[in-house]
User: What shape does this take?
Amino acid sequence: MENKIKTRSYLIGLFAVFFGPLFFAMWLFYVPNSWLSSRTQNHGTLVVPAQPLEEFELKAIDGSSWSHEEFTGKWTLLYIGDTTCDLYCEANLFKMRQVRLTLGRDSERVQRKYLGLYTHKNTQAINELFSKYHRMQAAWFDKSVVDKALPQLQTLPIHQIYVIDPLGNLMMWYPKDATSKGMKKDLKRLLKVSKIG
Assistant: This one.
């Protein structure tokens, strides 16, 4: 009888070690506001339920292309903008860069992207701006093409920061006046409880 109890305890312990972090991460992921304080404005808002990005391929105005594969394998900070970049935009590009750098060894698990929507092809000014953010992947697309290929983004406001998990799920967003402190706390927690990406 004593051996059976020890065996059962051992199996329960193994189960908890291997599956406990997975269940905890899923709980954090799917239960809204369970771990983000509703009393502060410096943390992201969860997208509930998370919106998976379907397979797509977007042609940019410079001839390059983006596909769904570029949004998998890493955590993605996505900024949706246009061919202008005001002070809020510049501040958010800076915050995205700094937040990633402050993640230390986990910084390689996070990538930054700028998806620009345009109505004309004059992107010279913003291209000059991105020379300061050389590790951020930036491209500009016709809005109608993006709306068709990525209906999940169609109703999202521009000039916000969105978080896409390594499985390609749109799962969180930040307003343009969010603080880098809140973003860092959220990302560090996500990276800690999740071993994907």
Remarks:
- The chain is about 35% helix and 25% strand.
- Residues 2-30 form the longest helix (29 residues).
- The CA atoms of residues 94 and 133 lie 8 Å apart.
